[in-house]
Amino acid sequence: MSLAFTIARRELRGGLRGFRVFLACLALGVAAIAAVGTLRTGIQQGLTDQGAVILGGDAEMRFTYRAADEGERAYMDSIATRVSEVYDFRSMALIDGDQALTQVKAVDDGWPLTGAATLDPAIPVAEALASQNGLPGALMDPVLISRLGLAIGDTFRLGTQDFRLTAALTREPDSASTGFALGPRTVVRTDALANSGLLTAGSLYETRYRLTLPPGTDLQLLENQAEAQFRDKGMRWTDSRNAAPGIEGFVDRIGSFLVLVGLAGLAVGGVGISAAIRSYLDGKTETIATLKTLGAEGGLIFRVYLWQTALLSALGILIGVALGALVPMLAAPLIEASLPFPATIRLSPMALVEAGFYGALSALIFTLLPLARTERIRPAALYRGGSGTRGWPRAPYLVALVALSVTLIGTATWFSGIPELALGAAGGILGSLLILSLAALGLRRAARRVARTKATRGRPALRAALASIGAPRSDATSVILSLGLGLSVLAAVGQIDWNLRAAIATDLPTRAPAFFFVDIQPDQLEGFLDRVTNDPAVTEVETAPMLRGVVNQINGRPAREVVDHWVVRGDRGITYAATPGEKTRITAGTFWAEDYAGDPQISFAAEEAEEMGLKLGDTLTVNILGRDITGTITSFREVDFSNAGMGFVMTLNPAALAGAPHTHIATVYAPPEAEAAILRDVTKTWPNITAIRIREAVDRVAEALSAIATATAWAAGGTLLTGFMVLIGAAAAGERARIYESAILKTLGATRGKILSSFALRSALMGAAAGVVAVAAGGIAGWAVMTFVMDSTYRFEPVSALGIVFGGVLATLLAGLAFALRPLAARPAQTLRAQD
């Protein structure tokens, strides 16, 4: 090894010529992974450090549609130094002639327990919420202020209560802990809502009790105590250790996904690394021949160039790690200011080590085969311009290659935290590489055959282009692999994004209702139905009683011990019905009789029941408004949640919920031109009823999906940039072959124009082939995601597909023509004299 290191070090004195593409590909891939890891760690650190501020206290006890009872309040007072009560619900902010959905936060004197709200104008929160001249004050999100055309001092209504807008809420310290909201925020005092008609029995709201705890409190111990006493009554516990689990989970998953996209970029870069090593070794034929003539064995040659690869890989990894750490640090102020939750972006050693590890493994995997083939080089073949490196290396190298690949995939799966996605991505990358390799092989064989047919007679440029693609040492494989994989990722993103937007923009509105109306009091239902059913524009109305409950037990055992499913992770909508309804399809069991008054019975959603492993005869214990109701599953029914209509996982017989305070919900189907009149009449007549426009809700979801698609597209763009670097490397590596080809063509009488046309056609054909394969791979990936992940239909989107093919042609043209000048200027005599 010492002799090999000495030879490698002396040879590297000649500079890095031939390794620039190697370094660029490796550095770009490592930088992408390091940057994503640094950002993810920074966000997670910010959520951890600012947990109490995000949550609004050291801990929180949350209840659905009820306030804490005396025993629960007594427990909070016994463990906390301060307690703040917050009501959270949706309502309509009303002004004369207009209205808008808002997420209301009703607070007490203690809000916020931690952190600070930022107001414009900058006045204390207590002063902003105080009553003046009989009108309580209110804070409002600037978006909602603009939407309603309000100014500071103007009046608006929540329910039947008037409020005076005193300030814009520019920063809400605990906004990240409340999750996704359909409307902008309004903050008022809880006691100001006493006469609003919004917080009545059966209304849909949450109460959150934020607790300030003594220093050194054991949060885990308190969580265990609280859940043991109150979990069965519907209480949910959160504390500052994981103040925003939804955000943290989302950041972790999207970060893991982007790291996997970064690995795809490394795979693309690996193609360039392999091509660069092959090209470099081809350029070292005289050196290798001389060493072998002097007695050097194949093993020594392998170790010499392994040392060189290792040293240059270390340099490329260091450059990538430095870029991946430096860019997020420089952009930290901008990123931190733009995020709606705290982030502390700083150096993350683990993220950098992970990126470096991936880079090292990738470099070794993609250089092992070219390096191993040096053992098969024969000195006699090298002095006359041949490489002598064809054929597969010995078995130990192939075993090592498989072991390294398994290590890389296993490590990515372990670090990602989402093994299914990691294995799927690894399978997709390997499958794409295999498909692209087969496509390259097919293109080369087809080009070789077509070049010999009558179709190319009289077309020397086309025949030369096809012959060049089909030649034994053609760079078609490198070009199609590198460009095709990057374009495949981009094509998949484009297909998924278009299908999601199409489902939201075209499919959903044709099946979804115009409005969801909630908090309809029982004595208001008749008048409400009279208004909407007598409207000729309304095509359909559905109503149902609405309660919320938490599934605590399944067959007498704690539900979360039985199954980890979204149905048991929080509170769920529950209704009751005497008959199944006209559209209900019972898939198993029987629905109870209309006058049934026995023990509680449950009709459960069939698909969710199958996922949870439930069967007829199983019992569920559901906590509704603090009361446990145990019922038996007697039927399963089909529930379709995809059309944004009314759907309940659980339906009970009416006697099981007799006496429970509740409200009704309704869905109204109407064309867009009728929505304004319906909304105006309902909110004016019944101010407590909240109207949720499905189109506005869908727009909010579309914004979130757009942000995800943008992030993924940027990551795919990084993969594509790496692919373009590989193209440049392939073009540079093939420059000598193009010089030789140009010399032959000139000798046969070809002009520079014909030669240039041949080069351009060759690049365009390879780019088009890479683009077509990428579109096919992207289409398959898009279909798989939309069908199995999104549970939606898939339609092929041709516009982005044509753009991908055009992009592939353009990229290969630019890369190929950039290295066409020297071949065009080559003198045939000087070039051919040194060749066989």
Question: What do you see in this structure?
Answer:
The protein has 836 residues and is an alpha+beta fold. It has 4 domains: 1-47 and 250-393, no CATH class; 51-242, no CATH class; 418-510 and 695-836, no CATH class; 540-669, no CATH class. Helix content is 54%, strand content 16%. The protein contains 27 helices and 21 strands. It has a 6-stranded mixed beta barrel. Strands 12-14-19-16-18-17 form a 6-stranded mixed beta barrel. α14 crosses α15, α17 (476-511) packs antiparallel against α25 (798-818) and α24 (752-789) runs antiparallel to α25 (798-818). The chain is elongated and about 100 Å long. The relative contact order is 0.12. The model has no long low-confidence stretch (mean pLDDT 81). It comes from Tabrizicola piscis. This is FtsX-like permease family protein. It is a multi-pass membrane protein. The chain crosses the membrane at residues 21-39, 257-277, 310-335, 355-374, 395-415, 421-443, 764-789, 801-821. InterPro entries: ABC3_permease_C, Membrane_comp_ABC_pdt.
